[in-house]
Structure formats: C-alpha cells, structure tokens
Here is the input.
Amino acid sequence: MTARFKDAFLAAFIAFVLALPLAGVRTMDGIEGLTLEWHLADVGIAALLIFLGRLLLGLIDDGYGAYVAPLAFLSGIVSVLLPMPSHFLKVVAVLGGLVIAGRAVIALFRHSGKFSGVSVKFNGFSKNLTAISAILLIFMLILPFMPFASRYAMDVAIMVLTYIMLAWGLNITVGFAGLLDLGYVGFYALGAYSYALLAQFGDIGFWMALPLAGLITAVTGFFLGFPVLRLRGDYFAIVTLGFGEIVRLVLINWTTLTNGPNGISGVPRPTLFGLDFAREPAAGQTAFNDFFGVAFDPMQRVIFFYYIILALAVFTGLLSSRLRRLPLGRAWEAFRENEIACAALGINRTRIKLAAYSLGAMIAGLAGAFFATRQGFISPESFTFTETATILAIVILGGVGHPFGIVLAAVFIIGMPELFRELEQYRMLAFGAGMVLIMIWRPGGLMTVREPTVRLQSVTTKI
Amino acid sequence: MDYFFQQLINGLTLGAVYGLIAIGYTMVYGIIGMINFAHGEIYMIGAFVTVISFTVLGLVGAGPTAVVLMIVLVSALAVTSLYGWTVERVAYRPLRQAPRLAPLISAIGMSAFLQNYVQLLQGARVKTMAPVLQGGFELSHRADGFVVSISYLQIVIIVLTVLLMVGVTFIIRATPLGRAQRACEQDKTMAALVGVNVDRTISMTFVIGAALAAVAGFMVTLYYGVVDFYMGFLAGMKAFKAAVLGGIGSLPGAMIGGLMIGLIESFWSGYVNAQYKDVAVFAILMLVLIARPNGLFGRPEIEKV
Here is the structure.
C-alpha cells in the first residue's frame, strides 16, 4: 500500500515538473516582447489526476479491484460536475475515471476465472479472409448508392482508399522485403507531378498519364536503388529518407518547372471514355450527364473518383497478393528473414531488392497521379515526411506484411481523425498518443499472424 | 579568403549544435539499436524551456546576465532531461522485446505527440526573444568594408560544445555508468547477468542525450532568438544525418559528422546557393555512404547467420 502511494506520488511529481514550464507558463506575444500567462491550477490538477490514476491502477494490480471499480466510476461521474480550469482536463478526468473503472472490472472477472480477458483475437479471422474480402469488396462497390453516402462520406472513403493503396505499395518494400523505406512520399510526389506536368506541357490525359507516371516512378526507383544497394538496414532507411526530402526540395526550388511552393493548379480531371464530368464541357467534348440524359450533379464526379481509386486499390491488393506467391515473393520473405542465408541459397539479392523497391515506387506513382487529378491542385506541401510516417504507421499498425490488417489500420488512422473533426486542435495529439498506445498494446501490429505463403499439402498418393 | 573565414566560423557554430544533438541519436542507437525520432522534439522542448525561463526571469528582474544564463541553462537541462527519461519510460521501455519496427513507430507517435503538445500549450506562432549576449571580436577588416567577426555567443557555443564533448567522452570511457553503457551496447543479456542494471543504464543514456539536446536548444535560442514548435523536426533530421555520416554508434563520429554538415551547409549557401544546401548535404551523405557503408567512423557490422 505504502509502496503504491510512493509510486503514485513520484509519478505525479514527475508530471508536475514536466508540465510546469510548458503548461503552467504560457508565453504570449505582447507589445514589448513576450508576456506570460500563468496556468498553475491546470498543472496542479493534472498532477493530482495522475496521482489518483496511478494509485488506482496500482491498487487494481494489488487485488483491490472490487473497491477501485465503483470509486473510479464515481470520481469519473463527479468530475463532470466539478469545476475545472480547462475543458481538456475535465475530459481527461472523466474518461480516465471510466477507463480505470473498466480495467478494475476486467481484472475482477479475470481473477474469478469467468472471463479470459478482452485481448482481441484476430487469429480465427484470417482463415475466412477470402470470404471477408469478398463481402467487403461488394460493400465497397455499392457504397456510393447507400443512403448515408454523402459528399463528405465519399471524400473520406476516397482518402481512406488512397492510403490503403499507398500502404499496400509500401508493404511490398517494408513488409515483404523488409527494406525500411522512409522516402516513400518522394515517389508519391513524383507520380503526382509527373501527371500534372505531362498534362500541362504534353497535353496528355489522365488515362495515358497514369501508366506513364507508374513507369516514371518505377524507373526512378530502379536507378535510385542501384547506388544504395550496398547499404543495409537503417543506413538504407536514411538514404531513402534523404531521397524523399530531396524530391520535395527540388519541387520547391525548381520554380520554372514546378511553380515552386505555389504548386500547380488546374490539373485536368479524368474522363470516362471521353465523357467529361464538368457542367460545361470544353468544346468538342460531351458531358457525362448529357450523354446519359440525366441531370448534372457534382456527386457524379466524386463517385467516378471513388471507383477509380477503388479499382486502383484492388489492383494493388491483387498485385501484392499474387506477388507473394511468386518465386520473387518467396525470395523477398527469405531475404527479410535472413539476408545471408538467402544469398547462400543462390538468390540474387540485388535483383530482388531492386524489384521490391521499384514495385513499391510504382504503386506510389500511380497513387500520386490519382491524387493530382483528384485534388486538381498539387504543391510540395502535400508531400512532407509526415505523409511517409503516416503510411508507415498504417503498415506497421496493421501488422507488417498483413494485407487485411493494413485495411483496418488505414480506416483507423485516416478515418479516426475525421470522426473527431470538431476536436480539430486535439486531433494530432490524440493521433500521436494513439500510435504509442497501440504499439505498446500490440507491438506486432493489429494482425500479427501471417499466413504461410506455401503450405505443404497432405500427400495421399497411392503407390 | 576573408569570406571563407567568416563562413568557416558560422559553419563551425552551426555544426557544433548539430553535433550535440547528433550525440543523443548515436548513443541511443548504439545501445538499443533504434532511431529515436522524438529526439528532435526533446531539443525543441529544451529551446522552449529556455525562452520561458528567460521571460520569467526577465519579469522578476533577476540580477546580472551571467547568473541569469546559468539559472536558465540549469532549468532547461533539468526539465529536458526529465522529458528524455519520461519518453523512454513511457514509449520505449515497454517495447524492449518487440519487433524492430515497433519502437520506431512508437517514436514517430511520440514525436507527433510532443510537437502538438507544445503547439497547443504555447501556440503555433514563432516566439521571438530579445537578444541576450551581444557583441564580439572583429578579426579582420578589408578595404571594401567586409568584416570577419566572431561573436561572443559563437565563442560560447564552440567552447561549451568542446567542454561537453570532453565530458561525455570521459563519462563513457572512465565512469561506472560508461562501462555499463558499453557493456549493454555489446550484449544486454550478458551485461544483466554480470550485474549491470540494463534498464537504468538505458534510461541514463536517454537522460544524457536529452541533456545535450537541451544545451543545444539553449544555445540555438540565444543565437537565433526564435523558437517554434516545428524546429525540432528539421534540426533533428540534420543531426540524425550527422550521426549517420559519422557512423552511427560512434561518439566522435557524431561530432565530426555534425561539424561537417554545418560546414557543408554554410559553405554551400555562401558560395553556391542557399536553396539547395539541404540537397547538397544529402548528396554528400549519399556519396559518403556509398563509399563507406558504415559511415566515416562506424565499425562494420558483423554478420551472423
């Protein structure tokens, strides 16, 4: 008991010291330099909350769950009424109380052996993966015609699908071949700018430019891969990180070609076999709504975008699941598990590394071209390291190499912040904290179990 | 030639700061083999604590400059080290046995968290601070009026960095803590078996790294007089490049890598153009890595099957 008090006190003290300068004293722009605003009450209450939380959690471990549960629940409820200096602290107090109460209850059940805990088991799940994928795909296909498919919902769906596609592409490099690529966004940018520039200078439409963008990024990946092949592990990561940054810097500074930080606007929209989705199509073009004799609706284009990205994502998914079964895919996995053993088996490391890197790059390039046409405007702003970090987080949270886990993680990482749009300012804070917590909860990602690529068939041949 | 010397002085100042941050990366990498992406944010917190304590002391009207500087430095050191310790305790220690990429993601999450935490509390706008230590020596005058000068602050930065380098080298080479760190770097299980407290050693590594980052943040705040919540990202990236250039895991390598990157930046922007200085740094980093895949001072990894 005393030990728990001591421990909780220490935690509260540390929190107090950490928060005192940054949260307790806020600098404000004054007329003559900086002025200060004191928020000592916030810091004190935060420390108190941490003391209580830590103490109660400790007591649960000591077997006092039966007392902690109602106590924590009550304090959570009471905090709603108590005056607090900031809204944020109140939310933390209420949620914290409820979470601790929940944990106490779970601990109680676990002790009495009635309940084996809430650890999520996804394992049985992977057996029915084909069926689930099929159901999901059908759902995705009819999604635009659902009653809840508002303009906003479709925008979110397009974004989630873009990230699923990007993450599947990165998964080829990181998940299959085990090469940590931190410059992935460079290829995404390259694909987007390839299309924008091809359209601007070469008057090439989206459907022509899409494969070209994929080709350009794949070739770039190939040539970039050559010099860095000698590097291993984290050194490889750094050089690719450098590549991503260089692409962005060149885009910012090469103003004559890329228009610098102002970006390129008016990227042409795709057409459906020559049918335009604009209200007033350009001369010589037919509008989609005129051709089919329906009223003009801006949603038509959004739905069209949705189907394009759905097709691209499905293409990526099929490509990567087929690749895994090829000798190349098995070579990647061998390479990931043990580089030397892989070389000893006579696998050409250079070739498979290059293949993984440029295939990943190609997917990013395709997604980039889609991004450019979807936004209609691109600028270097959209291609920062944060983007790579987000995609990497999706791949790893999903469970490296697990295609379905990636879908879950993409919905979580891209969709969750959208749900909390009103809490705009706390969005990224929660995003960061969420990433840390999920990693601690499931260090291997949401879905860790991987299907064996090759399964030995039970041989029942008659002799 | 005069211009060359001026760029050299500026480059060394910049490089000293990068080097100090780079040590934090290289030590952590050496001991647990992980890229601590949140280290740049630790440096940013050091800079913010510096600005805040300066403003607080300015309001109470504390005594002579030297005393104020000392108090600010000590408070920045204390708070920032505690941040370094807490980050390790909260985000990395539970992942000691996890797959290699898990702590990396945890670090990226921590970095996002700290950045937004500071942004929420202190605002997104750039904070400007009145210059504290002004003046300097003029080293040479040219007929056309070009003056090569070294400011007091630049001297302070370079001297302080050299002192800290000597100090850290001493800790690693000659103290029980340094011995424990080297032991953990070689083999954590074995070190634990012979009685080294591995968790404590790793915590101390983070504390030392954070303390150095705090000094770097302190010096940069005095030197440029501006801080913002995003500053840690860029500086962290550069320092990390410095650590890689010098050979990650090597202490002198981090320092020399930092100096080299500072010099390349300063000369490139002085003689070629300022926009592409980061591209130049990366290009040189790549060339060095292609010639020496383990960095300038890194030991080649022993491959085991």
Remarks:
- Chain B touches chain A through 73 residues (CB under 8 Å).
- The mean pLDDT of chain B is 86.
